[in-house]
TrEMBL record:
Belongs to the eukaryotic initiation factor 4G family. One of its GO terms (cellular component) is eukaryotic translation initiation factor 4F complex. GO terms for molecular function: mRNA binding; translation initiation factor activity. Keywords: Initiation factor, Protein biosynthesis. The lineage of its organism: Eukaryota, Viridiplantae, Streptophyta, Embryophyta, Tracheophyta. This is MI domain-containing protein.
């Protein structure tokens, strides 16, 4: 049922974090195929909802799967190069993600995911495509760096 699709997407993504590299790439291909091939079984909204749940759960997932931010970044990069998402969509979701809004920024996971997205776009499509997509996005990497906390002075 279409109402379950976003949950299915999030379960697949979360499950992929404990899999092998090749399976992560296969999931990116599967999600792309389900969005771009007729009959269209997944839409962008369902992917976005699934991604939001994954980002909410990411901090917990990292406990069992330390490569979760990297693997998520690779899946998202595939969706960007296939034209399903834009870098700015991914960046906004990452900024807002976490168990508390913005917590992925605070703990450094946001830059890890976004950095992997950008690295993988470069690997898949080359530096010129990455530069063009990044320039159009209006995203600034500096805004994804964790804020330095001042030392507590009592």
């Amino acid at each position: 049922a279409p109402l379950f699709h976003s949950t299915m997407v999030s379960l697949w993504m979360l499950d992929s974090f404990v899999r092998k590299d090749v399976e992560v790439d296969l999931l990116g291909n599967l999600l792309t195929h389900l969005c771009k091939s007729e009959p269209f079984l997944l839409n962008r909204g369902q992917l976005t909802e699934g991604l939001q749940y994954v980002l909410f759960s990411l901090e917990d997932a990292i406990v069992d799967a330390p490569k979760a931010p990297e693997f998520l970044g690779r899946i998202l990069a595939k969706l960007v190069v296939e034209g399903i998402f834009f870098i700015q969509d991914i960046a906004r979701a990452i900024k807002d993600g976490g168990t508390e809004p913005g917590s992925l920024l605070e703990n450094g996971h946001a830059i890890e995911v976004l950095g992997t997205v950008l690295e993988d776009i470069k690997r898949l499509k080359g530096e010129p495509v990455l530069s063009a997509l990044y320039s159009k996005s209006g995203v600034h990497l500096e805004s994804f760096m964790p804020k330095k906390r001042g030392d507590f002075e009592g």
